[in-house]
């Protein structure tokens, strides 16, 4: 689409040349141009259901949400899929989503792309940042 023009001025490359897009092609382009949200992208390689459950501290997350822990592994996976913490590919395999890693990872350092997003608390001595009293990189902790 040309800047400042409407959708009728949309062009596509076809067969080595640029031509005006038909209404059907414009509609198809718009339907297929959904931008993925960062939270939904995969943070892990393909993992077994056992590894998915072991990598995420879902019990702590459920405690924070004041919800009961599901009875079996399948119910846990279904809940995590529903909350978009994981992306199941098959019944017993899937990926941990960025949202799941940030919200409930046992070790954020296991996720190369997300390890720099860990919470860091710095306590300074005095009113300026000249002297550090204490610094702590943390994870999910419950009282």
How would you summarize the topology of this molecule?
Blueprint: E1 11-14, E2 17-20, H1 23-31, E3 47-48, H2 49-55, H3 58-64, H4 73-82, E4 86-90, E5 93-96, H5 98-104, E6 119-124, E7 132-138
Antiparallel strand pairs: 1-2, 3-5, 4-5, 6-7
Note down, in words, how this protein is organized.
With 143 residues, the chain is of the alpha+beta class. The protein has two domains: 1-34, no CATH class; 38-138, no CATH class. 28% of the residues lie in helices and 22% in strands. The chain has five helices and seven strands. The protein has helices spanning 23-31, 49-55, 58-64, 73-82, 98-104, and strands spanning 11-14, 17-20, 47-48, 86-90, 93-96, 119-124, 132-138. It has a three-stranded antiparallel β-sheet. Strand 4 (86-90) and strand 5 form a beta hairpin. The longest helix is centred in the middle third of the chain and has 10 residues, at 73-82. The protein is flat, with a radius of gyration of 23 Å.
């Amino acid at each position: 689409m040309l800047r400042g023009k409407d959708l009728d001025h949309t062009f596509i490359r076809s067969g080595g040349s640029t031509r005006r897009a038909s209404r059907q092609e414009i509609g198809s382009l718009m339907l297929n141009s959904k931008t993925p949200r960062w939270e939904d992208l995969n943070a892990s390689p393909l993992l077994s259901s056992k590894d998915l459950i072991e990598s995420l501290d879902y019990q702590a997350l459920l405690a924070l949400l004041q919800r009961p822990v599901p009875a079996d592994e399948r119910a846990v996976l279904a809940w995590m899929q529903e909350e978009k913490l994981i992306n199941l590919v098959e019944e017993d395999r899937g990926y941990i989503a960025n949202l799941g890693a940030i919200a409930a990872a046992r070790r954020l350092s296991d996720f190369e792309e997300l390890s720099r997003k860990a919470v860091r608390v710095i306590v300074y001595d005095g009113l300026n940042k000249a002297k550090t009293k204490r610094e702590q990189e943390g994870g999910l902790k419950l009282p």
